[in-house]
């Protein structure tokens, strides 16, 4: 037990020492660099949530944030962007992309989007009808 604790504490010390060296290096680099270089070191305030596979899942576009109901199933590698609403009992399966950047996309009650589908709403309709995309059960 004592050997395990000693090994763990020596790793922690090495990690802490390396972290301090990195912070000092960054501090000296920003102090000597131009103001534009210091901006590139700062973290990006990107409001995107990532799932365990590293693919984007929910992407807000401007003021529009995708909405997913509590009972809806959305596979881990689905991409939802912009004005997308997934209602109660609906499901969106693996590899699908729902891109609501130009207009609304609604997946209605107990509807589903199957594997590897891509849905994209049009900006406007030439007939004058609403151009939003709505998947509903009949």
Question: In which range does the helix fraction lie?
Answer: 25-40%
As a whole number of angstroms, the C-alpha radius of gyration is 23 Å
Helix-strand topology string: HHEEEEEEEEEE
Going by helix content, strand content and strand pairing, the class is alpha/beta
Largest sheet: 7 strands, mixed
What is the strand content? Answer: 25-35%
> Kindly, what is the distance between the CA atoms of the first and last residues, rounded to a whole number of angstroms?
65 Å
Quaternary: single chain
Q: Count of helices?
A: 2
Please, what is the average pLDDT?
76
Sum this structure up briefly.
Helix 1 (2-32) runs antiparallel to helix 2 (35-41). The termini are far apart.
Q: Could you list some keywords that capture this structure?
A:
138 residues; alpha/beta; three-stranded parallel β-sheet
Report on the structure:
This is Gamma carbonic anhydrase-like 1, mitochondrial. InterPro entries: Transf_Hexapept/Carb_Anhydrase. This protein is of the alpha/beta class and 138 residues long. Helix content is 28%, strand content 28%. It has two helices and ten strands. It has helices spanning 2-32, 35-41; strands spanning 49-50, 56-59, 67-68, 73-74, 79-86, 91-92, 97-107, 112-113, 118-120, 133-135. The strands form two sheets. Strands 1, 2, 3, 5, 7, 9 and 10 form a seven-stranded mixed β-sheet that branches. A three-stranded parallel β-sheet has the order 4-6-8, with no helix packed on it. A hairpin with a 5-residue loop joins strand 1 and strand 2. The longest helix is centred in the N-terminal third of the chain and has 31 residues, at 2-32. It is extended, with a radius of gyration of 23 Å.
């Amino acid at each position: 037990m004592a050997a395990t604790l000693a090994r763990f504490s020596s790793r922690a010390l090495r990690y802490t020492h390396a972290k301090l060296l990195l912070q000092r290096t960054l501090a000296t680099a920003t102090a000597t660099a131009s103001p534009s270089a210091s901006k590139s070191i700062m973290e990006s305030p990107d409001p995107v949530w990532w799932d365990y596979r590293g693919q984007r899942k929910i992407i807000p576009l401007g003021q529009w944030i995708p909405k997913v109901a509590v009972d809806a199933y959305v596979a881990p590698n689905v991409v939802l962007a912009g004005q997308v609403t997934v209602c109660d009992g609906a499901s969106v399966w693996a590899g699908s992309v729902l891109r609501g950047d130009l207009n609304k996309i609604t997946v209605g009650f107990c509807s589903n989007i199957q594997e590897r589908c891509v849905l994209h709403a049009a900006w406007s309709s030439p007939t004058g009808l609403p151009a939003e995309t709505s998947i509903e059960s009949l």
